[in-house]
Structure formats: structure tokens, C-alpha cells
Amino acid sequence: MSIVADFLGKNARENVESAIAKAREHESFNAILSLSEVRALERADKVDAGEITGRLAGVPFIAKDNFLTFGSPTTAASTFLQGFEAPLQSTAIEKLEAEGAICIGKANLDAFAHGGSTENSAYGPTKNAFDETKVAGGSSGGSAVVVALDIVPFALGTDTGGSIRQPASFNGVVGVKPTYGTVSRYGVVAMASSTDTIGVLASNVTDAELVMDIMSGQDGKDMTTLPDFFTPMSLDRPLRIGIISESMTDDVDVAVRNNVNQSIASLRSAGHVIEEVSLPILKYVLAMYYIIVPAEISSNLARYDGIRYGKRADAQSLSEVYGASRDAGFVAENKRRIMIGSYVLSSGFFDAYYMQAQKARTLLIEALDTLFSTYDVLVMPTAPTPAFTLGENTDDPVKMYLADIMTVPASLAGMPALSVPAGKTETGLPVGVQLIGQRQSDALLLALAKQMEGNA
Amino acid sequence: MTQITSDDVQHLAQLSSLQLTSGEASSLRDDLQNIIGYIEQLSELDTTGVEPTYQVTGLQNVWRADTVDTYGADKEALLALAPDAEAGQIKVPKVL
Question: Theoretical Cys-Cys bridge with A162: which of A81, A166, A247, B21, CB 3.0 to 4.6 Å?
Fold first, then answer.
């Protein structure tokens, strides 16, 4: 199934040239913000000369534009960082480059990764790979579309509340969010530090697994990384799998439920034990998430002040420089989240919102831990709907947030989760099924996903 | 339900170091009202006696050696990123 294998051993320059040509053919999708052609070709020539070797030698990829990379700007899809040339590369990029992979460019996202449709990009929305009137999903929308369009075999994304899994679902590709702490976040634009993770979008599970294997491991530059626990494996036993019944109610699109039910049926015929389980606290997860994450955003984005890097607005006093630079550099959704964060953290409201959300998070984790004492894997849809229409939810932030309900639980609990394609709607839009595992069971989830892909 | 006023929006903007244009302040007021109206439902959940979870790794006090580390970026490259710099320093408008 591996597509990466097709690139290995081929002429690296041709791999890169062909990927860049495809990127240019598909410009109308607005999935790519910049190409690093010069640097990519230099690296390709070194691979062809045998100076760079490794498990991904000569394989082109694209990184979401919130990874610091050499060769083209890193903007986080904001005007704040327009033209920002990174002085260093993120650890994830360095690890992939050490294995010979070649970054050919940067993918579009919601500005600062705030959003679920890529419509919050300061450079315009990315269009769905299957229907240009639909959203790509987000925030890693560009990364999902470049894989779905076969421009590159894999792309990097970040997932804070579903930003890898949901666009993977909307574009029919595999999307992996690892256990919190699996992959170093050094050199990646921070959003919400207690749930930010780095993962991969790929056309198949085998390639996603290889990329995760390369990127995972402890990094002295990110003190939240865990000692490397990730070892790829195959399934040698039937699993106990719980289907979260609250995720399969009438509120969920019928085509999504039908496709997920088909995946469940195949899991059953593969010999796994399937049971319905209940997670009543699911109805509160978005309220938790949209307190905790804006709180962390308001803190993390305080660094964008127009002083040390990025765009500085022209103003007289220092406080006016801050205010005007931040006004010009952030999109509306960035401002909403920063201000909600300021609200829930302000004195008088702290206990009612932030503290209450962190306590509720404990209850969510306890509920999930209880399920994982019986089940190996939990299954639910990746998103309650297929890709929605461009512009459909942009006037209603709360409606946009509701699309995250399936992906947020694993994020708040630091648990691994992935989305694998689960068929299409009658109108041809992809649907994804989500597998969630206990912390550090990433290899098991991928093993199950490989089996599902083989049986599909 | 909590009512968010225009004054609240201005106060939050100030806390957030955000200068807002007047048209934006009004649409932000509506958005913040709706978002806060939504997240308020969390008060229904009984969390008596529950400890908060701030992080999920369980890692504590991860130390590194107390030595200079440039983290792969040199001083000149970092200064070059600043909108205004002079004599090895970042230049800012008058503070006081």
C-alpha cells in the first residue's frame, strides 16, 4: 500500500520536479502558501549524489505553514508573519530531513491554526479536494488537500482539537494525532500548549506509521516530550472495541453514520469484539475545550507584539505599537479566541470558567480511562458531517465550533486518535472513521488501521 | 445569561493588547456573547471535590544543564528578524 516506497530509489530531482509541477497544476485549490523549489532541488541533487540517505531519501513532502522551515517563509497563514524567514527549523522537519525527506513547500491553514475549515487563513480558504465548493476542513486543510490531490505522499499537520483528523476525514486521507508528548513541538507555532500535537496526513496508514516512527521521541528542546515508546507493530489478536453511542445519534449526518457503521461491520467480521459504550460527558467537551484552549491561546499569542519579529505597525507609543500591530496581524477568529481567553482568565471569572473546565477535564479523562480498562480502542465518527459548504458557518463561530465535538475528547485527554477513510456520501464527499486509544497505544491504533485498510 | 456590553469588549481588548476598529467591536460583542453563552453550560456539571487537570503527561520539573544554548539560532539571525534594530539591540518606540 505504501506510496512512499514508489519514490524511494527513484531520481530525487524528478520526484521533486514532478511534485512541484503537480502543485502548480492545482493552484486553484489554494492549498499551498509557498514552494521552496531552490532548496528542495539542492537537497534532491544531494540525494541523487548519495550525500543524503535514509528511510525517506528523495521523498517530497509539504509541511503546514506553522512549522519553521528553511527555503520559504513561515507565516502561520497570518499577515503578522508575512514573509517571515525562520532562523531555525522545527525538530520534526530536522528529523525527516535526516532521513532524506525533501520539504517542497508549505500548506495553508486557518491563521495560527485557529479554525476548522481553513477559511480563517489570511490568504484565502483552501478548497476541498473532492468538491471546490466545499471546505477543506481545518486547521490543517492545506495539508489534507495536497495529499488527497496526490501532490505529495504525506504532509505534516498540527492537531490541537482535531486539526489533523477532521480535514483528513473531509478529504479522504489518513490523519494521525499521536499521544500528547510523542513528537517534539520545538520550532512549531504554539497554539494551546496543553493539547498541541504534531502528526501526519498521508494517503495510507503504512506511510503515516513510518513518518510517525521517524518523528517521535524525546527532545531536549521540548520539555513535554516523552521517552520514545513508539514501535510499529501488527495485530496478532482480536481487540475489544467500544462504539461511543452518543457519537452515533440522529444529530450526526446519516451518511456519516452509515459509513461508520460499515466500518464497524468490517471490524466485526475481522474478528474483533464490538460493543456499544456510553460517554455521557461528551455533551460538555466543547464547552471545556472552548474555555481551556482560548485561555492558553491568549497567553501563547501574547508574544506577537511587533517588537522582536513579524510586522510592526507604525505608532507613537509602545502600547499603541502593541495594539495596532496585533489589530493588523490577527484575523477575527484570533481576536475572538484571545479575548475569550482573557475573559475566562480574568479575576472574578477564573473559578467559574477556567477552573471549572480543568475539573471537568479530569472527569472526562476518568470516564475515558474507565472505558479503556475494558476496551482497547474506542470508535466514533471523525466529524459529525462531511465537508460543509464554503461560507456556510463563517458568520456563526459557535456553529463552527460544534464541528469539533468528535475530535476534542482525545485532545483534552492527551490520547492518540486517527482518522481513516470510511467511504463516501452519495454526492461523493469522503467520510472518516476515528479510532481513539489509551495514551501511548499509538502503535496499536495504527496496527488496527492497517488491518482495516487491508480489508477495505 | 451573562450579557457582554460594549464596555466589556473594550476592557477585554485592552487586557488583550488589541486595538479594535469600531465596526469590529460591535460584531465581536455579538460573537463573544454567543460563545460565552455556549460555554456557560459547563456550570451544570457537578465538579465538587474534583482536582483540576492542567497537563496530561505527568512529567514534573524537567531540567536541563545550566549552560548557554543558542537552540540552533545565532544572535545576528535573530536580530535580523526585528523590525528595527541598532548596535546589536532591538529598537522600540519611547516607553515613558
Answer: A166
